[in-house]
Amino acid sequence: MKMTTPIRDFVEAYVASDPLRLHMPGHKGAALLGFEAYDITEVAGADSLYEADGIIRESEANASLLFGCPTYYSTEGSSQCIRAMLYLVMLHAKENGITRPLILAGRNAHKTFLSAVGLLDLDVEWLYPENEAGYLSCPVTPEGVTARLAHLETENRLPAAVYLTSPDYLGNVVDIRRIAEVCHGFGVLLVVDNAHGAYLRFLPESKHPMDLGADLSTDSAHKTLPVLTGGAYLHIGAHLPSLFCNHAKQSLALFGSTSPSYLILMSLDMTNAVLASKKYTVSLGKIIEKAAACWLRLAACGLRPLQTDDPLKLTLCPRAHGYTGLEVAEYLRENSIECEFADPDFVVMMVTPAITEKDLDRVAEVLCALPRREAIVTCPPPLIKPKRVMSVREALMSPSETLHVKECAGRILSAATVGCPPAVPIVASGEIIDEDCLECFRYYGIETCSVVRE
User: Fold this and answer.
1) Under a CB-based contact definition with an 8 Å cutoff, are residues 437 and 446 in contact?
2) What kind and span of H or E run contains 47?
3) CB of 191 closer than 8 Å to CB of 235
4) pLDDT (tens digit per residue) in 312-322
């Protein structure tokens, strides 16, 4: 598929014309870092992100063709899109006479979800993991969602939407297709934080949430595609009422800067051409094969990589090898390899077509040289369900103070505390910090909390 790049073409032509820049930004295109010439503002012809009717609109139309649904750009990551999605859900609910919508959410929602719930004054109830998963995973099944929705229906308080995070940080993926069918059977929207899965659309058989039945989703394009940090997509189901697309830009503008980065917009624009090429799908298939081969080598070394449905994640649980995830991360760093994430139990490494077979061979050689030690047998603390005593909004909007966790027993959490986003928060805004929470804080090395001031 031949794909135009209107934003890039305009910016390059603007740079080539060498105008006297009596407009923002203040560097005027002068080189300090080397890319300033391309860092422009909304000059004539450059279009405007939130009122797009020119080159940005054309570029977003290209992205919509690639993803098979109305798609809109964010230059402030999927965080901006998460807030926008919840705003759209709220508008839709209010149009249907629901003044304060309820969201049924997987407990491993990104902390941006909590801030959006607080800002929009939404009610939230949690879907907790349905097995012995830890704090970085939240397996939710169609059966579990069915049971919860049926219960809420008997109470005459069906949620406006079910909100899920998939893939999660470790690479686990929930059954979006069947959960979408469940949600739609109850007349409920399915909203998916697909921040780690933009590439899923470009597998031989798409596994992108929008192709599996989700109504709204967001991708952090920069996480798995060749996009600058901050580039993201908001996807809206073509089957949804016109309210959603009509208010898409308004929803993004409500939470976004009025000065979007044209460097990020250029990156999103140019990536359309990359994704439209057969070369990208071929290279994606090759790196998946190479990552699978690396996985087998690590498994043979006893490093226990997780078997997940996200082929671009290499997640290790090295405790059986005698190491914490933090120790392995430091060992990798000493060998000039930087992982994505580590905690006491896991190490997460992310690959894309920008990683070569030689790179993966190096990772395997370094890790397989790690001497085996006596296995670590201590277990992470069990998942807890803290008691909520205050709404998310009330907790976030109350005066707060930051205390050492030793002083927090019995206090109400103000700002969300998690090991890493998106994870299952040990305690969420508006919930009581009890002794079980303190034990979890100690295990994960959390030393301070923001609590509601008494």
Assistant:
1) no
2) none
3) no
4) 999 999 999 99
DSSP per-residue letters across 369-412 = TSPP-PPP-PPPPPP--PPB-S-HHHHHHS-EEEEEGGG-TTPB
For residues 225 and 191, give the distance between their C-alpha atoms in angstroms, rounded to a whole number: 21
Reported as type and span, the H/E element at residue 217 is strand 216-219
Please tell me the distance from the alpha carbon of residue 110 to that of residue 138, in angstroms, as a whole number. 12
Give residue 421's pLDDT.
57
Tell me how far apart the alpha carbons of residues 33 and 319 are, in angstroms, rounded to a whole number. 43
What's the sign of the alpha-carbon dihedral 330, 335, 341, 345? negative
Q: Who's near 396: CB < 8 A, 6+ residues apart?
A: 114, 115, 118, 414, 415, 429
> How high is the mean pLDDT of the chain?
94
Residue 145 · residue 139 · CB < 8 Å: no
Q: Is 115 exposed, middle or buried (0-12, 13-18, 19+ CB in 10 A)?
A: buried
177 CB burial (10 A radius; 0-12, 13-18, 19+): middle
List C-alpha distances in Å: 79 to 109, 116, 120, 364, 421.
11, 9, 14, 33, 11
**β-bridge pairing 347-350 and 313-316:** antiparallel
Greater pLDDT, 69 or 441: 69
Share of the chain above pLDDT 70, in %: 98
326, pLDDT greater than 80 = yes
* 342 within 8 A of 331, measured Cβ to Cβ: no
* Farthest-apart Cα atoms in the chain, separation: 67
Distance of alpha carbon 266 from alpha carbon 9, whole angstroms: 9
